Structures are given as C-alpha cells and as structure tokens.
Amino acid sequence: MSAGRLKTYIGTTIFLFIFWLLITWSLHIQQVIAGLVSCIIVVIFCRDILIFKEERPFISLRNILNFVVYLASLFVEIIQANIQVAKIVLNPKMPISPTLIEFKTFLKRDLDKVILANSITLTPGTLTVDLEDDIYLVHCLTRENASVVVDWHMAVKLLGIEEEK
Questions:
Q1: What is the pTM of this model?
Q2: CB 110, CB 131: distance < 8 Å
Q3: 33-44 pLDDT, tens per residue?
C-alpha cells in the first residue's frame, strides 16, 4: 500500500469520524468507540470506491464554477426530459420506440466518464446500461432521444472541465 493511499484512508476515516461526532453530538466513550469502529469499517469496505490523489481532478475556482454550471444545466435537462417523458406517457398512442445505442466518448478521466453515465441515467427516458472503457451502452425511450444522447452537449461541458488546468 502506497503512502498516498494510506493518507486517503486515514483522511477519510477522520472526516467520517468528525461527521459522526457532529451527528451524535456526544462524547460518551461508547459513542466515540462505536463511531470510530464504524468509520474504520466503512473505509475498509468502501476502499475500492475512494478517489485517490492521482485520480482527483484539478481543483480551481474556475473548475468549481464550471461544475456548478454543469449541475445547473443538468437540472434543466432533467426538467425538460421529465416534461418530454410525461408527454409520451400521457399520449394515448404511447409513441415509444425503445432503442439501445452504443457510442464512444472522448473523456479521459474515469471520474468524468462515470459523471456522464450518471447524468444520462438521471435524465428521464435514458438509462446507462453499460460503460466499458470509452464505450457507453444507453437505453433510450425513443429513437429521437438516442440521437440526442450521442451528441449530448453535457459531454462537451465535462470535456471542457476536464481540459481546464
């Protein structure tokens, strides 16, 4: 185990333990011990999903602002997709044409690829079925949705954040 990974484990345990203390608002010995043991167990079981220093994105004020803009845009996309899916479902003819589409992304970092996959899944009418390397497999409620997903502007926004240094 590298020193960087050990620092991440210890830092995450400390962060969780402070959170535990804030939630319990108690310094009784059994509360402190239970909290510390629980935090250590969580870190041990979740070590595969921790983001280590070498995997973290470059953090700057500009990147944070760009990500906030991304989240606001995603929120708008979710609302628009909800309206679109409601129109489809409420239509008596139920004009659906379920489609599986496969496309490649140009995102480099795994974290950004996962953010895009989750963004697709959060948007009603689409579901990321698989993500393998740079290839996404997405289920869409209609063929029109499928054509939009391939060139979705949210991926371009993520690429812009990724390339920012």
A1: 0.71
A2: no
A3: 999 999 999 988
